[in-house]
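Instructor's aside before we start: the two examples that follow are unrelated to each other. I chose them only because their records fit on one page, so don't look for a connection. First example below.
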Amino acid sequence: MKLSLSYEVKPFKINQQWGVSNPSVYSRFGFTEHNGTDVALGNDSLVYAPAKGTIIKSSNHPTGGGIFIGFLLDDLYTFDDGVTCHVLVDYLHLEKVIALVGTSYEVGSVLAKADNTGFSTGPHTHIQYRRGEWNGNVFIQRDRNEANNSFDPTPFYNGYFAKDSELVVNILGKIIETLTKMIASFKK
């Protein structure tokens, strides 16, 4: 399956791209390039699930990522380099975690409220994507690079906002229900 992601915040305005080199800032954390995508706070400051997945960790690192969560996408994804693996998404600098560790969430579910905790230059959502294997207890990273073993998620965004997915699902459900009734009436 190919990775397809909905935007986690609305609007989706990138403040800093993945992979920007800044050794003087990032070397204190053990890498030299920006390990995520920084997105301006959304209208409601909420972070929504970009795909179906499960919260596997939630913690606070006051001098680094601040309050953060790890969201493991449920499916295995095949990438252009032939690698098939899991994807772990970390959301950093949060004000409050809303989702519960060990709980599965659908696209568009509220996961957290973004803010400015930890080592941060201002309110935003820091989103870090990593490829790897999940054995049920430990996430084993697949890649090694100067961006803290992460990858750029921007080519995988599908153009839809996760926040709107519930509305789309409800509309599609009503359309299917109506079509089912119409087909049933034609069969009579």
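Example two begins here.
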Amino acid sequence: MAIWGNHSPTMFPDAWNARIGGRPAPEVIGDEAWPKDRFLPAVQQRGAKVIEARGASSAVSAANAVVDCVRSIATRTPPNDWHSAAVVSHGEYGIPEGLVFSFPLRGDGENWHVVAGLDLSPFAREKLHLTTQELLQERSAARELLEA
């Protein structure tokens, strides 16, 4: 599954391009509304859920995500699979060049590349647009702070 965007409330986990046993996840789940109505909000609120469950910070979860990311980059990606990580955009999927954005990636253990050509639904395209706009606003606000 691709995790698009950044790790804010507009982050978009793309369940429609996820596979379960080689089949599209929504087909296996059998509920067209589930990815949008239940899965997406749950992933977007995962940090709060970790804090609620543990009664403590979700920093361990974030640290584990860093380890998983490094492992994914340093290991050959299995055939027909990918992982997601935030990298600098070169314009892939219409994301502005230079914006740090989470994309689906594949690698050979030394080099990686953004997976090209995933079919994105109008819903996915809208979520990517919202995430992009949020990131551009954050970048602008950060620049203003640095210039002050």
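The chain has one domain: 2-147.
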